[in-house]
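Re: the 218-residue chain
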Amino acid sequence: MRVLNLYLVRHGQTYYNIFNKLQGWSNSPLTQRGIDGAKDIGQRLAEVPFAGAFCSDTGRAIATAKIVLAENQVSNIKDPKPVSYFREEFYGYYEGTDMNQAWYLAAGPHGLKNFPQIVEKYSFDTAKDFLKEADPFGLAENHEEYWNRIDQGFALISSDESLHDGDNVLVISHGNTLLSLMDRYAAGRYDLSERPANGSLTKLRLVDGQIEVVSYNE
């Protein structure tokens, strides 16, 4: 049995975060607060020896990863490995759209008004499906497309022969992805009405490729 300790960090604050815009595969730069937040979590993790570092290939995730690794005092890794599998959910036509407006359009045909109502009545996966249904181009990811991609990311880490039992691995992630992971694997242990903070830490264990949740949004 091989256990890998995954340290999932949500990227630092971006301008789209301030503007309340959906930011999946699209990207906006880190704000100064986002840069400072990345430095803060980097300092919190400065004594954690990382054997590997992965991030989505979006600019905000790469920038956050480099800042976190620059603060680390006990790892030889200076640059993360960008992986497209770890991108945020793809919102298709609604990329860059006001978050409330996009979810209103997705929820409306089902007699609901917003994202929280979809999740309360159905699930996070259903929200993905509803947004794809509302996308006039049909490009937004439904839950099957989303999880097929994300699962490949964790499989990539699990199959990395440079990683050994007990190793620590840094993964720079995204807000909705962290919520989705908790919804799928945390068995209701956390209040998911609160989004994970920019620069927050969530810990997972990858046990022979299977995900176990250790903590959320620290």
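The domain at 3-90+141-215 is CATH 3.40.50.1240 (Rossmann fold).
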